[in-house]
Specification:
The complex is a heterodimer of chains A (432) and B (207). Chain A is an alpha+beta fold and 432 residues long. Chain A is built from 16 helices and seven strands. Chain B is mainly α. The chains are: A alpha+beta (432), B mainly alpha (207). The interface between A and B is large, with 38 and 56 residues.
């Protein structure tokens, strides 16, 4: 056997772990090789040194401690130990987990995005339009199936109710006593109407007229039933809001129609709703433009007419002055002076068109309006640009008055848009 | 390798299997039997590898806790003792890796008196010497061995403990450390050489 093999077996030989055959082989090798013998001695010393190490025995409480540790609940310390031990392995895993978590958070919330939240702009008019009046809320509370939206539809509905009320008031002029039985569904009313009217039995809201048997009365009764049924149908959405339907009264008995009371209340409420819904009125609205064309002939006629009027006025003033010589000399003098100045002014007005413009201006002031010439426009003896402010209610009269002097050639108005007390507009007066 | 040791190993394994079966049937006595049988060996292994009685004891107890929790996964493909040693070695490795274990490791001497957890008795190394002079020599040699062992690389230390101190077979070591037989042998030669180098001049002349 070669020395390498013996060299490998030498440690086990020292410890006595080899079988007889291998031991014999090693012994033979040791006899032949001094190197092996030296190595054998070193190994022997080495193993003897190791034998000096005392045996470490487990304590008597070892088993119970093991059981205690098995039964021990998971404490914070053990949990931390479990999570972080061994650090070499678990720390990279934990860091990886943390990185993934951060990545997910960043992905979801995107805190580094440059996107900014748009500032909230409060549109006052929109808020006012959306404002739900208390009355509407009260109505809708009784009808939970309805969507509470004080929208245009709501206003339309209220307008319809007002119309219904007006119709109803007209009908009330007829000597009729109304009985009321609400139909379960509006569609049923539609379907049942012809038969019911024909048979004289209306399940819906109907007027119970005195049963006289007269043909006119029957016709009136049918008409009444028809009208009231229409009313009922239209009022059905509101009727649903009623807290509790009253029991159907017997035919022919006098019954106070609580629908009417209810409709009246609704109308009052609707008025207030509409009033609230309106936006604040502006004081003055600029509404547009009016162009008045006066022919030269018309202008001359105006002049003549005016001069005559002035002369007549002057004459009257003179006559009055002579009559009131003693009584009121002062006032007579004033009148005379005024008449003379007017005549002088009329005579000084040259060319003739100035009188026409003066007449127009007088008409404006006569209709509670004020005027001023527009300085940014070219004012010529034949054409003048006025800026007029006039109460809204006087506008139509002024317009008529102007039309009597000439022809309105152009009109660009948006009166329907404006709800102001006063209106402003441009007046172009041209003499052609 | 002697046939006697192999036969002993397998007879031991039969006993272990019966303990395991007992435990898996719900009788903790089986587990207790395993603990009592192997506690000293595992304690020695852990204390030698970790070089610290306290850490060694902790690792040994933790090993048995792991065994208790994972015994149902033991398939019987290897000897139970091999499986147990493998768990113990891995537990020691984990303990060595933990930073606070390394940070708080106190230089407790194995031959220094240590208070027992249970009854505060002083644990002392058993005295087998015939004379005070020999006893002193023995202590010096033991101290030199421990120092040499402590300065060895971790891989070499495990091999020296398993093979030269605990007397495990190459095949067992192969399975415990999960390395090839050739690696075991070659690494063991280097480990022994390193130990002898460290002990040279310290143990000569003592015997």
């Amino acid at each position: 056997m070669d020395s390498t093999k013996i060299h490998e077996m030498l440690p086990d030989f020292v410890r006595g772990l080899l079988n007889e055959e291998d031991s014999h082989t090693v012994q033979e090798g040791l006899k032949q090789s001094a190197t092996l013998r030296k190595e054998y001695e070193e190994l022997r010393s080495y193993y003897r040194a190791l034998e000096t190490l005392e045996q470490v025995n487990a304590s008597s409480s070892f088993l119970s401690t093991v059981h205690t540790r098995i039964a021990a609940p998971l404490t914070l310390g053990t949990l931390i130990k479990k999570i972080f031990t061994p650090l070499q392995i678990k720390l990279p895993l934990e860091l990886a987990g943390l990185a993934v978590t951060v990545a997910i958070v960043v992905l979801i919330y995107n805190p580094f995005s440059s996107r900014k939240i748009a500032p909230v702009v409060f549109d006052e008019s929109a808020i006012q339009a959306k404002r739900v009046p208390v009355e509407i809320q009260h109505i809708e509370e009784a009808a939970p199936e309805k969507d509470i939206q004080p929208s245009v539809k709501e206003k339309e509905r209220v307008s319809e109710q007002k119309e219904i009320k007006r119709k109803d008031i007209k009908k009330r002029a007829a000597p009729a006593v109304r009985t009321h039985k609400r139909p379960e569904k509006p569609s049923q009313v539609h379907a049942a109407q012809p038969e019911k009217v024909a048979s004289g039995k209306s399940v819906g809201l109907m007027k119970s007229l005195p049963a006289t048997g007269e043909p006119e009365e029957k016709a009136a009764k049918s008409a009444a039933i028809e009208t009231v049924n229409e009313t009922t149908e239209e009022m059905e959405p509101l009727a649903l809001a009623k807290p509790a339907p009253s029991p159907a009264p017997k035919a022919g008995t006098m019954v106070i129609d609580d629908d009417e009371i209810y409709a009246t209340k609704i109308l009052k409420r609707s008025d207030s709703i509409l009033m609230e819904a309106k936006t604040p009125k502006p004081a003055v609205d600029d509404v547009g433009l009016l162009a008045l064309s006066i022919s030269a002939e018309q202008s001359r006629e105006i002049y003549k007419k005016e001069e005559e009027t002035l002369k007549v006025n002057a004459l009257r003033a003179q006559q009055q002055m002579s009559l009131d010589k003693e009584k009121d000399r002062k006032s007579s003098r004033k009148r005379k002076k005024k008449a003379e100045s007017e005549i002088a002014a009329a005579r000084a007005a040259s060319p003739v068109h100035n009188v026409t413009f003066a007449v127009i201006e007088r008409k404006i002031t006569a209709h509670n309006g004020t005027f001023s010439l527009m300085h940014d426009k070219p004012q010529t003896p034949e054409k003048k640009y006025y800026f007029i402010e006039i109460p809204r209610k006087d506008f139509s009269n002024l317009k008529k008055a102007l039309e009597s002097e000439g022809k309105i050639s152009d009109e660009k108005f948006s009166l329907e848009v404006s709800e102001a007390e006063k209106i402003q507009f441009n007046l172009i007066v041209s003499i052609e | 390798m002697s046939k006697t040791k192999e036969q002993t190993d397998y007879s031991n394994n039969d006993e272990d299997i019966s303990f395991i079966t007992q435990f898996l049937k719900g009788d903790n006595a089986g587990f207790n039997g395993l603990v009592v049988k192997y506690q000293d060996q595992i304690m020695n292994l852990c204390v030698r590898v970790l070089g610290n009685y306290t850490d060694g004891q902790d690792a040994a107890q933790e090993t048995f806790v792991k065994v208790y929790k994972n015994l149902h996964t033991f398939k019987g493909e290897a000897l139970f003792s091999t499986w147990l040693y493998r768990i113990a070695v891995n537990t020691c490795r984990n303990k060595q890796r933990s930073w606070w274990s390394r940070f708080s490791r106190s230089a407790v001497k194995l031959d220094a008196p240590i208070r027992n957890e249970e009854n505060d008795r002083i644990r002392e190394v058993s005295d087998t010497s015939l004379s005070p002079e020999k006893d002193l020599k023995r202590h010096r040699i033991a101290e030199a061995v421990k120092k040499a062992l402590a300065t060895l690389p971790k891989k070499h230390r495990e091999l020296i403990v398993l093979r030269d101190i605990q007397g495990r077979s190459y095949e067992e070591i192969e399975q415990i450390l999960n390395i090839s037989l050739g690696t075991v042998k070659s690494r063991l030669v280097r480990a022994r050489s390193a130990m002898q180098e460290r002990l040279r001049g310290k143990i000569n002349g003592l015997y």
